[in-house]
Amino acid sequence: MKVVVIKQYGGAEVLKIIDTEIPSVGTGDILVNVKASSVNPVDWKVRKGMLRFLPGQKFPKMLGGDLSGEVVEVGQDVSGFRAGDEVYGMISAVKGGAYAEYAIVTNNQIVHKPTTISFTEAAAISLAALTAYQSLVRLGKLEAGETVCVNGCSGGVGHFAVQIAKALGANVTGICSTKNIDFAKELGADTVLDYKAVDNILETSKKYDIFLDAVANQSYFNVLKALNRGGRYITTLPSISVILSTFFKIFSSKRGKIIAIRINSEDLRFLSELIKSNKLKVNIDKVYDMEDIQDAHRHSETGRVVGKLAVRID
Ligand SMILES: NC(=O)c1ccc[n+]([C@@H]2O[C@H](COP(=O)([O-])OP(=O)(O)OC[C@H]3O[C@@H](n4cnc5c(N)ncnc54)[C@H](OP(=O)(O)O)[C@@H]3O)[C@@H](O)[C@H]2O)c1
After folding, report:
1. For the CA of 180, the nearest atom of ligand 1
2. Which of 127, 137, 144, 248 is the 20 to 30 A CA-CA neighbour of 265?
3. Ligand 1, atom 48, residue with closest C-alpha
């Protein structure tokens, strides 16, 4: 099978396609013929060696977390899936292996693909949408009627967060650049703030119950004044300010939290229900062929992706 690997850390040029054996199926494994994957920023962070302190970094190293495809074979202990099922989900993006013609998954990492979406669309959902959902619901304990601000509302995580927060009954403010204002409104944002148009995006009279920082360019202390009593600042990247915020717990009802995505089929099934009821859509900015994976990484690294980048494998 063809698989994208790196044999050293570096720029996009270190991404190579090689031929290797199709992995064998263990008793709890599911072998998927991958139809599509997507690029998430974590993929090029792994490629650059920014996460080299984490386990599973031996060369040649596979990349990619998101996938969609067709089940080819299931191990004897697997229930709920059989050959021919159309599925989507994710494996650990740090470990990698989704930029490949075949991948081994477990039944907690995939769900059946809604028939209303293509393999390309399905492949672009899991990592970013799970991050958005788990930030708002698992960490943020979002309740209907609350006010949510999504910083970076036009990116992978952000565009899912706006739609999920709206679906759960929140009033949503999105922060993006001028060119993405219409896109943010189409996603359902009640208010859109243009960070290019003001010096300090937090210098408004608006206050929020949840501030989801998908850009991670704010800090808990910057956002404090924009949080209601009991408000939650949630960031997608580790931050000193959030760690320090734990010391302020006794003085303030406002909390700082860092999301660490957990692969979880229960949450994926919730996302599938939103997709089926037309409350959640993925915006595919561009589809790349596997052969053009270097260009796909370069595009993601610009930080200007609107929604998601998909990778056609099949
Ligand atoms: N902790 C976790 O488990 C976890 C999970 C997923 C992702 N992440 C991290 O979360 C971050 C976001 O991921 P992503 O997939 O959403 O990235 P992405 O798709 O690359 O985000 C791109 C978006 O960021 C927006 N943006 C850039 N600068 C901005 C600014 N100053 N203010 C507001 N928006 C800005 C861009 O909009 P404009 O072009 O309009 O500026 C663009 O639409 C990454 O660092 C990723 O590694 C962490």
Report:
1. 40
2. 144
3. 236
Out of 3.90.180.10, 2.120.10.30, 3.40.190.10, 3.40.50.720, which CATH number does the structure's domain 2-125+282-312 have?
Answer: 3.90.180.10
For residue 98, report the distance from its CA to the centre of ligand 1, in Å: 21
Atom of ligand 1 nearest to the CA of 217: 31
* pLDDT (tens digit per residue) in 50-61: 999 987 779 999
CATH number among 3.40.50.2300, 3.40.50.720, 3.30.365.10, 2.30.110.10, domain 128-258: 3.40.50.720
Query: CA nearest 222: which of 155, 151, 174?
Result: 151
* Region for 14 from its dihedrals, namely left if φ exceeds 0, alpha if ψ lies in -120 to 50, beta otherwise: alpha
- Which ligand 1 atom lies nearest to the CA of residue 128? 6
Contacts of range 198-201, beta carbons closer than 8 Å, 24 or more positions apart: 201/151, 201/175
Residue 310's pLDDT band (cuts 50, 70, 90): very high
Atom 35 (ligand 1) nearest CA: 152
Query: In residues, how long is the chain?
Result: 314
177 CA: nearest ligand 1 atom: 40
Contact 254, 233 (CB under 8 A): yes
Instruction: Report CA(19)–ligand 1 centroid distance (Å).
Output: 33
In the block, tokens 């734990």 appear at: 246
Please give the full DSSP string across 84-130, using - where no structure is assigned.
T-EEEEE--TTT---SBSEEEE-TTTEEEPPTTS-HHHHHTTHHHHH
What pTM value is reported for the model?
A: 0.97
Helix or strand or coil: residue 285? strand
* Closest CA to ligand 1's atom 36: 304
Ligand 1 midpoint to CA 215 (Å): 4
